[in-house]
């Protein structure tokens, strides 16, 4: 990570990158689904419906689970 630079994966629309650059962001384009972009796993707890939803980032071997 370099301060002041915004890294965008190639699957993000070029128009979005252009709009961000127009506001002063310094962009670097990465390939689609590059592992450097991170690896997020999350669980959403809907207490009202007593439902758990989970998702894992496919960039790395990971799972999201809850009980």
What does this protein look like?
With 67 residues, the protein is α+β, with helices and mostly antiparallel strands. It has one helix and four strands, in the order βαβββ. The chain has two domains: 32 residues, no CATH class; 33 residues, no CATH class. 13% of the residues lie in helices and 33% in strands. The strands form two sheets. Strands 1-2 form a two-stranded parallel sheet. A hairpin with a 4-residue loop joins β3 and β4. The chain is elongated, with a radius of gyration of 16 Å. It starts with a strand and ends in an 11-residue tail after the last strand. The mean pLDDT is 88.
Features:
single chain, alpha+beta, 2 domains, two-stranded antiparallel ribbon, 1 helix, 4 strands, elongated
Secondary structure: elements and pairs:
Blueprint: E1 5-9, H1 14-22, E2 26-30, E3 41-46, E4 51-56
Parallel strand pairs: 1-2
Antiparallel strand pairs: 3-4
Shape: elongated
Helix content: 10-25%
Strand order of the largest sheet: 1-2
How far apart are the first and last residues' alpha carbons, in Å?
35 Å
- Helical region count? 1
Rg calculated over all Cα atoms: 16 Å
Structural class: alpha+beta
Summarize the helix and strand pattern as letters.
Answer: EHEEE
Mean pLDDT equals: 88
Beta percentage is 25-35%
The major pleated sheet works out as: 2 strands, parallel
Q: In terms of per-residue confidence, which ranges show pLDDT below 50 for 5 or more consecutive residues?
A: none
Oligomerization: single chain
Number of domains: 2
């Amino acid at each position: 990570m370099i301060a002041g630079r915004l890294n965008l994966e190639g699957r993000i629309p070029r128009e979005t990158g252009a709009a961000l650059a127009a506001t002063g962001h310094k962009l670097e384009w990465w390939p689609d689904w590059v592992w450097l972009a991170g690896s997020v796993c999350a669980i959403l707890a809907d207490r009202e419906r007593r439902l758990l939803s989970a998702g894992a980032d496919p960039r790395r071997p990971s799972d999201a689970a809850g009980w």
